[in-house]
Design goal:
The structure holds 2 protein chains of 2 kinds. By secondary structure, chain A is mainly alpha-helical. Chain A contains 5 helices and no strands. Classes of the chains: A mainly alpha, B mainly alpha.
Chain lengths: ~100, ~475
């Protein structure tokens, strides 16, 4: 019986396709983050998912040798997340110290 | 590249090549020999750089303890600086070197004794000096007081991790990871020597700034998720303050980049070394602005609104305890350390020894030592600010950031552009020697002129320029003897 390739040649598999593995992980994280941004019930959770998504996309840019784009992605978009979240906290109703609150 | 007798990367690579050739190279996977050697080299360099940063972080904490203790005695800066290496009344407390077996520390102790008698702090505040010296007495039987923070860390580790009942548990647990991980990640892009770095990407300054600007998000999340109005206030304050100071910071860094013509930290330092002039002499205003903005970015005392103890308990980290608090405290200091190292790299020539061309023997000092010495020197300023200045109000911070720092940093950017385009001698690749001298002296003169803002006559009329004047001098010679 022929064993799968990654069992026969583990080092070759890891070092041969490390970019493929990294891309797979990044893609899954990005998709999960994007879904989480839309479906989270609280602003903070969706913002955290958005951060996750942005980081994963920056990682994909890095894999594509677009270093500048990755750095700008983190710098600009994460700064904007902060502002969006500030507005979210100010405009949405969060029950702080819930028992005093109605 | 500068020569360095400490070619750490080359040594590690050679050792790993040897290891890899004799293990992987012998097996049927011989074609991956280079990849494995490369991976091991990168891994070991990362561990070494982080280890170096973490162990020398103890120096920062020790300096802050000692210096701040002396500054708070109101004995002035000189006494405080001396306290870093000599004790009080001719005695350095602890004297652990005399307790080493077989006495290797005795000659050093004798020299120290001489220094103490010759230049020590001979003041008479016996009790205060004992209290401020408590770092020596805490665990002196185990380790010298320098390692006090290891004991602190062990204490943090044994503490319980508590989450407030009404807190948003998920975000509350995630926020410290965001803060600590990105803070540690900063040191990936900060080289400690020409051959002593963990990563040398082409855009390292850009990456550094990107990673440096993530931690405020974690601060905001931590403040929000604790479900406590003080932490929320601290988080919002930090968001407002850090977005206001991020822009001048980036513009100042951009001016350094324009001046040196590279986005790479190592190339910025090499440019300063090759052109023979440190950036601080070309952009004196920029360096001062960088220092001020960095103090705000790492939230140290004149700008520590997010954790103002008097109003907000401890601000955004009120609800954290145990090792999470300890690690966030450490990451605060790591950010300060990163700021000091960046100042040394951008403006003080990094690992360039001063007068390297004129003093021949100074090149024998390993370059990594210069990096650390310059960073620690900059940290003295941080402690000094903390002792000398008071906390400013939120609106003052924001106004200062938007209305003064931002325009000044733009002026600085224009200066850097003009200097690089029309003043820099591109043929010989060096600065005309008059330029740094002129810029530095004009800036110093302007600074001195602008800092004279007090009315001397009003000071004459009022013997003590304080709003509160005591009627009697507090019993001279009674307490302070």
């Amino acid at each position: 019986m022929e064993l799968p390739a990654f069992l026969m040649d583990p080092i070759g598999d890891i070092f041969g396709s490390i970019e493929g593995i990294a891309f797979g992980i990044m893609a899954v994280i990005a998709i999960a983050g994007a879904l989480g941004t839309v479906y989270s019930k609280r602003v903070a959770h969706s913002m955290l998912s958005l951060i996750m998504c942005f980081f994963a996309v920056a990682g994909v840019f890095l894999l594509a040798n677009a270093e500048m784009l990755a750095a700008i992605q983190i710098l600009v978009y994460l700064g904007s997340v902060m502002l969006v979240f500030a507005f979210g906290v100010m405009l949405s109703r969060r029950q702080i110290m819930e028992e005093d609150f109605e | 590249m500068t020569d360095d007798i400490l070619d750490m990367r080359g040594w590690v690579r050679a050792a790993m090549d040897f290891v890899s050739e004799n293990t992987i190279g012998m097996s049927r996977h011989w074609e991956y020999t280079d990849s494995v050697a490369w991976f091991l080299t990168e891994f070991i360099m990362c561990v070494m750089v982080f280890g170096g940063i973490m162990t020398t972080l103890l120096v920062l904490l020790w300096m802050e303890r000692k210096l701040l203790g002396r500054f708070m005695d109101r004995r002035g800066a000189r006494t405080s600086l001396r306290s870093l290496w000599v004790g009080e009344n001719g005695v350095t407390a602890g004297e652990w070197w005399n307790q080493l077996p077989f006495g290797p520390g005795v000659p050093g102790g004798m020299v120290n004794k001489l220094l103490n008698e010759f230049a020590g702090n001979d003041h008479e505040l016996e009790a205060v000096s004992r209290v401020q010296n408590r770092s020596y007495h805490g665990v002196w039987w185990l380790l010298p007081g320098f390692f006090q923070n290891l004991a602190d860390g062990m204490k943090f580790l044994t503490k319980e991790h508590m989450v407030p009942e009404k807190a948003d548990r998920f975000v509350f647990e995630i926020a410290p990871f965001l803060i600590i991980a990105t803070t540690v990640m900063c040191f990936t892009f900060i080289p400690l020597g020409p051959h002593f770095y963990s990563n040398n990407s082409e855009m390292s300054i850009l990456f550094l700034m990107a990673v440096f600007s993530v931690a405020p998000l974690g601060v905001f999340f931590a403040g929000w998720s604790s479900n406590n109005k003080y932490t929320l206030l601290g988080g919002i304050r930090s968001a407002a303050q850090l977005t206001a100071y991020e822009i001048p910071l980036l513009v100042i860094v951009l001016s350094v980049v324009v001046l040196s013509g590279s986005f790479n930290v190592i190339e910025v330092i090499e440019f300063q070394a090759d052109s023979g002039v440190w950036n601080i002499f070309l952009l004196p205003m920029g360096s001062v602005l960088f220092l001020v903005v960095m103090v705000a970015e790492v939230e140290r005392i004149p700008f520590d609104m997010p954790e103002a103890e008097a109003e907000l308990v401890e601000g955004w980290w009120t609800e954290y305890g145990g090792m999470r608090w300890g690690l966030m405290f450490a990451s605060e200091y790591l950010r300060t350390y990163a700021a000091c190292l960046l100042f040394a790299h951008f403006f003080l020539g990094g690992w360039e020894a001063p007068f390297e061309d004129t003093l021949p023997l100074i090149g024998l000092v390993p370059h990594i030592l210069w990096v650390f010495l310059k960073a620690w020197f900059m940290f003295i300023f941080f402690v000094w600010f903390r002792a000398a200045l008071h906390r400013v109000r939120t609106d003052q911070i924001l106004e200062f950031g938007w209305r003064w720092l931002l325009p000044l940093s733009l002026v600085n950017l224009v200066m850097a552009t003009v200097l690089r385009l029309w003043v820099y001698d591109g043929v010989n690749e060096e600065w005309p020697i008059l330029v740094p001298i002129l810029i530095t002296s004009i800036s110093l003169a302007l600074f001195i002129l602008l800092s004279i803002d007090e009315d001397p006559e009003a000071l004459e009329a009022q013997t003590r320029p304080f709003s509160v004047q005591t009627v009697d001098v507090a019993s001279p010679g009674q307490h302070r003897k």
